[in-house]
């Protein structure tokens, strides 16, 4: 299998997979779901889901990849179940859709990095002007996709692993520096208590459902990204411990992102924490104002560091998203890696153009679709996100666990997990994975899928 390439070490694989997991989702989504969902109470629920529900799906994906040494489509066929190739194709479709809009946002982050370096803090007040300057943001998106493609074109150990070994430690250093700095700002403790004081009364079924969806997306599950990365690891590696490190890194970085973000907000609002909202608005509108108030030199350093951090986090994720269709084409059509990479990256960039212009520039794509029962239309970008990530990922997770437990059969899964980890046999971890993959994951993920599908597209309000 040397022609496909391999991760050169277990650490290399862990860094690359953790890189896939740690992304835009950790830095802007997680902290605000925490604040809206009852602070530390949400963190606990999230942690529980990451380990109880997501972790078994993660080991399953990695095991299928390593067993077959194939892309998600080829993997089901290699195990003898050609009828399940559709599941691999569905994963590839969702990866392509996610990358198409994710790259647009990554391009914004990268563009903001350049603006911060120039000291242009006013950009925050002109966010919609920025996103509607489609030539400019299109160029940032193009550069981001080109960097992603360049890394992927260099292969597994020479490209993805090498990049992760540089990007992930740099990311950790940057987030620690920013967290320490933010905690020294006036009112920092007010921000941290807002973030962390548990409010169990705020934990509604909806919050629980959000925690689950967020954990699943954040760990890059349900589309075969980890089948793909798993297909490049050695049979000597311990899948269970690798997956634990990947999960811990993802959860740890998300947690740190909150510790960094809330003191910034507290500083800006004089400790009142009023008048800000989560998501893109916070990152692209509010934070530049914080950086500006630090004075020009310090503001440039802190602002540039923040958006570089965001760009690095996004880059290791876009790399994994691109690798999935690339491995598929290289494995199944015997195409050269370089040609496949550049061709697929170009196609996905083009597919992202409607998302790029769907923030006001093009009326058609901005008010793209009105769902049943909705009062206002969703943009193309939101629509692609609803289909590609919110709906297809949980559905993929349901089907992957059903496949592993009942089609491939769980004794085969367990046997693969014992390779490189002989001590697993008979432990509670093994029994737990067996139980979760057979019952817990398919049932809970089916609920998430149904709630999301009917909730997003048909306005059914479950909560
Ligand atoms: N996990 C990434 C994030 O949190 C997104 C992602 C999803 C990447 C699926 C790859 C596959 O931003």
Describe this structure in words.
The protein has 463 residues and is mostly helical. It has one domain: Hydantoin permease, CATH 1.10.4160. The chain contains 19 helices and no strands. The protein has helices at residues 10-21, 24-36, 40-68, 72-78, 85-117, 127-132, 134-153, 156-183, 188-196, 205-218, 225-230, 239-268, 280-293, 296-333, 337-356, 363-366, 380-407, 410-418, 428-458. α5 (85-117) crosses α15 (337-356) and α15 crosses α17 (380-407). The longest helix has 38 residues, at 296-333. It is globular, with a radius of gyration of 21 Å. It starts with 9 loop residues before the first helix and ends in a 5-residue tail after the last helix. The mean pLDDT is 95. Phenylalanine binds next to α1, α2, α10 and α14. The site of phenylalanine (PHE) has 15 residues, from α1, α2, α10 and α14.
Summary of the model, kept short:
This protein is 76% helix and 0% strand. By secondary structure, the protein is mostly helical. Bound molecules: phenylalanine (PHE).
Helix and strand pattern: HHHHHHHHHHHHHHHHHHH
CATH class category name: Mainly Alpha
How many separate structural domains? 1
Rg value? 21 Å
Tally of contiguous helical segments? 19
- Helix-strand makeup class: mainly alpha
Helix content: over 70%
Percentage beta strand: under 5%
Question: What is the overall shape?
Answer: globular
Task: Give the distinct bound molecules.
Answer: phenylalanine
Q: Describe the largest sheet.
A: none
Mean pLDDT: 95
Q: Tell me the CATH topology.
A: Hydantoin permease
CATH architecture: Orthogonal Bundle
Low-confidence stretches: none
Number of strands: 0
* Amino-to-carboxy terminus distance: 50 Å
